[in-house]
Write the structure tokens for this entry.
Amino acid sequence: MDYLWLVIATVITLIAPFAVAVLAGVDRRITARMQNRVGPPIMQPIYDLMKLLAKTKMLVNKGQIILATLYVTMSILALWMFVAGADLLIIFFVLSAAAAFYTLAAYSVLSPFSQLGATRELIQVLAYEPVVLMVFFGVFLVNGSFSSAATDNMLILWLPLTFAAMILVLLVKLQKSPYDVAEAHTEIVGGPEIEYSGKFLALVKVGHWYEAALMFAVISLFFGHPNLYIAFAGKLILVFLALFIVILVDNSTARLRFGQMARVVLTYGLALTAVNALVVWAVQEGVIPWP
Amino acid sequence: MQLIETLALLTILLPTLGALLAFPAGDKARKWVVLAFAAAIILVGGVMTLMFLYEGKGAVDLGKDSLGVDINAWVWGITALDLALMVFLLYLGARSRSIIAVVAAILQMVIVVGFEAWHGFGEAPAMPFVLDRLALVLVAVCCIIGSLIAVFSIHYMEGRAKKGRFFAFVFLFLGAMNGAVLSNELLWLFFFWEVTTLCSYYLIFHDETPEAKASARLALEITLWGGVALAAGIAYAGWKYGTLEMDKLMGMGDLAGLGLVIPALLVIGGMTKSAQVPFQSWLLGAMVAPTPVSALLHSSTMVNLGVYAIIRMAPLLKLYLPLSYTIALAGGITFAATAGLALTQRNVKRVLAYSTIGNLGLVVMCVGINTPASLVAAVFILLFHAVSKGMLFLSAGVIDHELGTKDIEEMGGLSERMPFVTMIIVLGSVSMMLPPFGLFAGKWLSVEAATQMPMLLLLLGVGSAATVLYYTKWVGRLISRTHATPKPAEPLSMYYKVPLGAIAAGILMLSILTPFFANSFAFNMLPAGYASPHGSAAADLLASNSYIWIGAVFLFLAAGLALPIALVAVKDKDKAKVYTCGEDIEPQVAGHYFGGERTETTLTDLAVSVCAGLAIAVMLLPYIAEVF
């Protein structure tokens, strides 16, 4: 373990949310274009955040803020671990800790919307977590280890179906239609987030950005190349491609009910990853001849 | 006799003596008997554990000359008690009018007496007891958690009838559990095993309501048949291989064909004790018993004994991998199915019961995968599950005792009414599912081991996500609160606070010591024929770099707790009401139970039929191995 690398990882972790904020800005612009609008400036998410930070403090109970902070620290930790090259499995568990704290924060206020949102959030966890585990397993099959450190392997060629499953997870994690059932602003007015305001809402938003950063980091794992520049460019293109697909799906579908959401994500996600893993295994074992 | 050998024997004899004294004592005297013996057992178990660790031993062998009295006295004593016990179990079966239990009791008797007649009554074993690392884990848990549960029961059982019988069986249970775990002689293991059957019967029976009687009867039926499997396995081992000692049996690397019936039978016996699907129904029925009984069954005694036997069988299962993998599959399905079943439950004791079955299923799965790392995972999960589950059940007991409810939906706002208990439950639940607490290390290892059988990975993924769901749902209900000034909490009895606080401290300590535990203890406890678990990434990380990762988790958790506590000051003017569309009420939304009983029935049927198929396959595989 190189300690210098831990420092670099920390720096990357610190600037990651800004990168995601820019991606979110791009998202809003593309979405606007798809809807024949002009859209806000690319930096709008940052402006929004600054404005939130300047608002008067208001909260329902302190317990919720503590749990929300735990959610944010766990999200940061997950990303930091990923950048530092930890085991994907420990990241998986930290991620589920983040999700648990986020839901607990929502449960801690006696608002019907928050409570409903929390339950839906949990059902989302039930839907995407097994898929994430299988995605990590796909990475393990090709790379031969659960390390999150980048390799030269071109995973996207080995794992196209797993990549598609990862898009499903991304849709859920970015709260995009058709899987925005927990937050569902037009239905349960923001669900788990309804009782945050001002700087606490900003805090939770930063947490989401970290989670999104981790998801994009996993996406970037699918492109690898011995040449550093090609690898970097390829990873970036892959991330934008994933983002574009997500935006496209978001704008062309309506929200599912949470039962449907769980069924679709779980069945398709697991089926895609399992079939892909089976094929990779068959190729590796020589069952399917490969040039 | 060395001190550690004496202490090991005391872990069996002391609880038995406690049982004999607690039974006839009057109410006041009994309290002191229970306290004194609980303290003594904890002391003996604790000192023994520390001595074992300090001396860095692999195992302490208690040969036939180190049992204090003449070995023949032991042999004849245990043989006589065993016969008496089997007759008594037959009587219990007849009394509860269960033809199934009667047949099982008769079969046991035929097998054991028949075998002893063939083998020669009263033959002294060379090595009656062995205290090795695996046994140490179980004995330590049993002594410490079990005694704390006994202390807890003093207050819980106040005002209930037949306390003498209750505490007698609690202590006897602890002694029998230690005896079974320490026994190297298989017939002795069988004797102690059947004593635990007797104890569990009476503890479930305790309230003597029709429901309690029916549940006790069910438990008797299932565990007696498990005993039949165990007896048959032992008799077959003695008949075919001429050995009745565990260490010799383990050393048989050439067990093949029909010989595999021995591990198969012992695993089936273990599955009944550990209430693995398809034998899970008795443990759910056992929920009618007073809550400390559940804590005892689920954390320190009964169910651990089953998986203990299964872990012991690992080297034999390894000789024929199809058998081992079938068992792994049964364990994985048990884990996923019970996690799903727990989602449908409103009764917190049933949620916890399903969680127990599932976690032990995980242990069985790890044994079935049968790699060095997976065996270490099995022990990790066994240990940390026992500690956390004991604490959770006791907390559920406090809630039940103080508020009179087991329904999760009625526990809203418990954090205001009972902050201490809520904290304990939060810690317990978090330690059951999330890093950095011990169970997570076991899960981590087990997920990595499951990459050998990707199908298990699917089951694991679904199961652990569902685990997060049902624990979070419960804790979420407990902590939902408003600004309303907390009602003055009723002072909890010290009999509640001390055991709960002690176990909580134990969990924190064990979690911090995880890397140490892995490195200097768990990784060296594998039976002969297993390489060190190093080479598995998770094991390597646990052993070396884990202070970075696990330390980071602790650090970030601490930061997440400390920062808002320190920085966010809440004044009255900052407080807001929740948004309720302008209504001046705080409506509460009930949790989601995935169709409740209907789903439970469907899922149970499905899991039972699949696992019953697998159990039959486990029994048939030795024949297949013999023929092909």
